[in-house]
Amino acid sequence: MVVIGTGLIGTSIALALRGRGSEVYLSDRDAAALAVAAEIGAGEPLPAEGLGGPVDLAVIAVPPAAVAVTLLDAQKRHLAEVYTDVASVKALPLAQAAELGCDLASYVPGHPLAGRERSGPSAARDDLFLGRPWALCPDERTSPAAVEAVEGLARLCGAMPVTVGAEHHDRSVALVSHAPHVVSAAVAARLTGADDTALGLAGQGVRDVTRIAASDPRLWIGILAANAEPVADVLEGVATDLAVAASLLRDGSEGAATHVADLLLRGNAGRARIPGKHGGEQGGYATVTVVIPDRPGELAMIFQAATIAGVNVEDVSIEHSPGRPVGVLELSVRPEEAARLADELRARGWSVPG
Ligand SMILES: NC(=O)c1ccc[n+]([C@@H]2O[C@H](COP(=O)([O-])OP(=O)(O)OC[C@H]3O[C@@H](n4cnc5c(N)ncnc54)[C@H](O)[C@@H]3O)[C@@H](O)[C@H]2O)c1
Ligand SMILES: O=C(O)C(=O)C[C@]1(C(=O)O)C=C[C@@H](O)C=C1
């Protein structure tokens, strides 16, 4: 394989592929990004003179506006049999590739729905795509063999391939990724004028809502500009809800509170529709909460206790208590296994409230 663009996503794919035994060559116009990716074991730099023949697959992991020119260049060099990209929008690269005269039979537009708020190869992780959807947007011009190869890539990275048309993809991600990003930025932007007391009171809620606001604005302006209309449609709906909520709160009447409660209930309902682990139903798990001292080996012993109790931990999160040497661990498990795990942990001396 060849990975062109060794930033967060390209290097994460390269690491995942290397972990599955693939031979990976790397290319980036930024020599420092290439050097870091190679240094952390993502692959070998692609020799300037090429490899003497096409590799199976080239993954183009550059910003959306650079995908089509990068594809054309790679195809001119006959770098690979099959090409895919990972850009967060799909209609733009596909239209530009057609306009530039790229070979569309061997190009499968793709988009793994996994990422981080950090950029560059040093933020890469080989497990980034585990259990995540990976959109593929072939059309009537794409060869079935190319689609099969890129489905194989997604599966090798531990992701679930999902086939969807490019326009449909872009409208969908406007709703589930791009508009939420702008909303997160808008909430975080309110904090620039906050005083130290307010910031000192920041808890997990604001951290959850603003995590993605730490992302690279240069990358995101390219994503938003390439999906402008669908994102604007969602933002207008959000803006209406917010404006109505603000005016009702000022109104202060009991009727107004009921209307605001309606927005909160719709929020509950929307959130509950987000699929859970492996695309399954969300909310099917019970949470076992454990207070853990901050000392070596504590987590390992808790997971060992879960193993002994025969309980599979489906998900895990840790909340740190600021200034205190303890944390609160939340273990998501099947509801029928929660009491067994709680008993096992209590018997071994941990504090399991509830
Ligand atoms: N960040 C995310 O969470 C995320 C998730 C899924 C998909 N994506 C998509 O993946 C792509 C890469 O994003 P990233 O987060 O890895 O960004 P990044 O900034 O970490 O990496 C991009 C890399 O591409 C290189 N690059 C830029 N233009 C190039 C060109 N013309 N030729 C060769 N290399 C070039 C840069 O030097 C950089 O190393 C984007 O299209 C983005 O939309 C991002
Ligand atoms: O979790 C994050 O940090 C992301 O930015 C991931 C996320 C997303 O919105 O889910 C962002 C953009 C990508 O195109 C794909 C995934």
Automatic annotation (TrEMBL):
Name used for this protein in its record: Prephenate dehydrogenase
Higher taxonomy: Bacteria, Bacillati, Actinomycetota, Actinomycetes, Streptosporangiales
Organism: Actinomadura logoneensis
Class of enzymatic activity (EC top level): oxidoreductase
InterPro entries reported in the protein's UniProt record: 6-PGluconate_DH-like_C_sf, ACT-like_dom_sf, ACT_dom, NAD(P)-bd_dom_sf, PDH_C, PDH_N, Preph/Arog_dehydrog, Prephen_DH
UniProt pathway annotation: Amino-acid biosynthesis; L-tyrosine biosynthesis; (4-hydroxyphenyl)pyruvate from prephenate (NAD(+) route): step 1/1
Origin: domain of life: Bacteria
Pfam families to which the protein is assigned, alphabetical: PDH_C (PF20463), PDH_N (PF02153)
UniProt keywords, alphabetically: Amino-acid biosynthesis, Aromatic amino acid biosynthesis, NAD, Oxidoreductase, Tyrosine biosynthesis
SUPFAM superfamilies: 6-phosphogluconate dehydrogenase C-terminal domain-like, ACT-like, NAD(P)-binding Rossmann-fold domains
PROSITE patterns: ACT, PDH_ADH
Family: Belongs to the prephenate/arogenate dehydrogenase family.
Molecular functions (GO terms): NAD+ binding; prephenate dehydrogenase (NAD+) activity; prephenate dehydrogenase (NADP+) activity
EC number: 1.3.1.12
Transmembrane segments: none
Keyword Cell membrane: no
Catalyzed reaction equations: prephenate + NAD(+) = 3-(4-hydroxyphenyl)pyruvate + CO2 + NADH
GO biological process: tyrosine biosynthetic process
Keyword NAD among record annotations: yes
